[in-house]
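$ ./design --mode recover --in tokens.txt
reading tokens...
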């Protein structure tokens, strides 16, 4: 009688990637809220606009932070969905690991979940790509088969 064990998929790496994706998403949503609610109302009297720019400085700053936060939201969602999909479809672990790794690296451009989320995603993605399922011989030594 074969038992289903936690060794059939990379458990710890998927948890790290889920936490990392959640942090990336949370920080990006927080920065998006800041760019919409707070940044347009700050005093920018000491800031000179770039040469040739005819808009307002609050609009420029808010737009840049909002665009980066939106990119962070996309990266966080992809990391989170890939980590959850890894737990549901562990046979495709290389695909999910590559997606987690790539979008964790890209999330640095969207503030990276205050760096902590991106680092957790990177570590989880690397661990997923390095993980190998146990051989039947290793399972029989542990008494799992």
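writing sequence...
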């Amino acid at each position: 009688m074969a038992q289903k064990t936690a060794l059939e998929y990379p458990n710890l790496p998927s948890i790290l990637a889920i936490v990392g994706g959640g942090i990336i998403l949370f920080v990006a949503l927080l920065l998006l809220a800041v760019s919409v609610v707070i940044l347009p109302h700050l005093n920018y009297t000491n800031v000179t606009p770039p040469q040739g720019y005819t808009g307002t400085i609050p609009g420029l700053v808010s737009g840049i932070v909002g665009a980066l936060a939106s990119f962070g939201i996309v990266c966080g969602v992809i990391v989170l969905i890939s980590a959850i999909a890894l737990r549901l479809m562990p046979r495709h672990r290389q695909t999910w690991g590559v997606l987690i790794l790539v979008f964790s690296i890209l999330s640095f451009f969207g503030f990276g979940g205050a760096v902590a989320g991106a680092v957790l995603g990177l570590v989880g993605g690397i661990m997923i790509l390095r993980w190998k399922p146990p051989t039947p011989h290793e399972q029989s030594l542990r008494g799992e088969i």
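exit 0
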